[in-house]
Amino acid sequence: MLFQVQSVQHVYPPQVQYVEGGDAVYTNGALRTAYAYNPEPQMYAPSSAASYFEAPGGAQVTVAGSSPPAVPSHSMVGITMDVGGSPIVSSAGAYLIHGGMDSTRHSLAHTSRSSPATLQWLLDNYETAEGVSLPRSSLYNHYLRHCQEHKLDPVNAASFGKLIRSVFMGLRTRRLGTRGNSKYHYYGIRLKPDSPLNRLQEDTQYMAMRQQPMHQKPRYRPAQKTDSLGDSGSHGSLHSTPEQAMAAQSQHHQQYIDVSHVFPEFPAPDLGSVLLQESITLHDVKALQLVYRRHCEATLDVVVNLQFHYIEKLWLSFWNSKASSGDGPASLPASDGEPEGAVLPKDKLVSLCKCEPILKWMRNCDHILYQALVEILIPDVLRPVPSTLTQAIRNFAKSLEGWLTNAMRDFPQQVIQTKVGVVSAFAQTLRRYTSLNHLAQAARAVLQNTSQINQMLSDLNRVDFANVQEQASWVCQCEESVVQRLEQDFKLTLQQQSSLDQWASWLDNVVTQVLKQHAGSPSFPKAARQFLLKWSFYSSMVIRDLTLRSAASFGSFHLIRLLYDEYMFYLVEHRVAEATGETPIAVMGEFNDLASLSLTLLDKDDISEDRGSEADPDAHSLGEPLVKRERSDTNHSLQGI
């Protein structure tokens, strides 16, 4: 049966149809209050001017009117809203209501004050995703700011929660945080990477993040007497305290890091036939294994929670421990299943560190730990991350050496140098990876600009590659066929306007092709280093030619060259680590420590081979130059030239 209500004016546009798709049967005379469209703060509001009648099930209800559409069809297409158990599926202005209309009077109440701009704002800034969550207070604060900017009348937090659930289906609510300081989070939703709300959160909450710890339960917690901030948390919806603002910021940043990283296994110390000092026993060594692992686990938890400032306290606590675990301002309680009081006195710790096998074991553990921290903080060097997270990581890296040196100031100099050498490699890796990430974001904009790509291709075609090859061949000794193939592949990839990820795949393939003939060979690290030198030299010759020709796209090429050089370094670093069975942190630590150049990561016979032969048999396949650069003295190559 079809009912047309002509007395209702300015309620809904004539092209909007409400079609009941359920099996319910309605009798005539079921009088309901009509809802009229209000273009200001409300989308549906009670109207006393007219009424509507519910038609029997399966009938089509057409409402006449001339007001503009309540919700633009283009902004709501494909959005399914769960309203009172009866989903409303919108498509091209038609709303299909599954189930009877008996509950619609109350089911639409939470959207009665939500403007179309608010619905579109939610769709533009948020998206569903597995394994992530956002504090309810953060979403509501964003909504309040949106209403303030658009001069809208905001709904209360409960009504906004219903609106969120109607727009994003399947959201769950979880209570996250330590006991007494937990907060409700929406699980399964996050900010879109390109949302301007990312920068809003970065600008307003970054300093708070650096000042207070996040209230999320770690495996190892600071003692209660050391941090009274845990009792000051509020359950209000606004970030009224620094820790609340910091918690929201950290929660937001955690979607960019790998919070699921499992703590790595540590090897056992290899004492061999070394005789321990009289004051040191095997029980002391086992105790050190226990407390050092607990210390490293606490360090990992702090980093996962982005509590960078607490690292200094952890190090001061561990390296200046007293006879009792309860002493000291930052002592750590024992974890479940481990004995209380598992803390070594400082004098015992100093004696243990003087033992060479123990110091070497600690160094290996540090390599494993710091590599895990790098993979947690920067799981993908090319993925866009907020600038404040990048800056926080760089500030963290800048402070590491000073924190550790201060914590170990009473230890022997050899112990300090060993520990600081590893943490220096860790800090340098963080700086390089964050710089690489910054270059990747800048280059991404260039690679997505069609006009810039066309200009780059035009300028590149003017480069005299034959002349470049002639000048570079004497230094690089590269096979001409290999160089020509790389040139053609580069131009083709540029012409195809490939994305940054496609360029990364191409660079990875170049490294694979060049180094595959050295796989399993002791000369692999050396060949990898030589490839980096040749790649850098050859690319610098191309940039020089572009500069001399005053190429219009020189700036774009310079940026791309910086990115590709850094990414090549990143790829080669990981290939060498894989070939040697070490971590990338250990690989770079060996390069930074000139006193350790004779260790396993670098082939011990490099210098003797360079002096004893004019041509390395492995050099011809990669194009080894006759004039070689020795590792410890850069003047050799200049003298040879």
- The number of helical elements comes to 23
- Classify the secondary structure makeup into a structural class: alpha+beta
| Percentage of residues in DSSP E strands | 5-15%
Strand order of the largest sheet: 1-5-2-8-7-6
General description of the model:
With 641 residues, this protein is α+β, with helices and mostly antiparallel strands. The chain has four domains: 108 residues, no CATH class; 138 residues, Winged helix-like DNA-binding domain superfamily/Winged helix DNA-binding domain (Arc Repressor Mutant, subunit A), CATH 1.10.10; 154 residues, no CATH class; 193 residues, no CATH class. Helix content is 51%, strand content 10%. It is built from 23 helices and eleven strands. Strands 1-5-2-8-7-6 form a six-stranded mixed β-sheet. A three-stranded antiparallel β-sheet has the order 9-11-10. Strands 3-4 form a two-stranded antiparallel ribbon. The longest helix has 35 residues. The N terminus and C terminus are likely disordered.
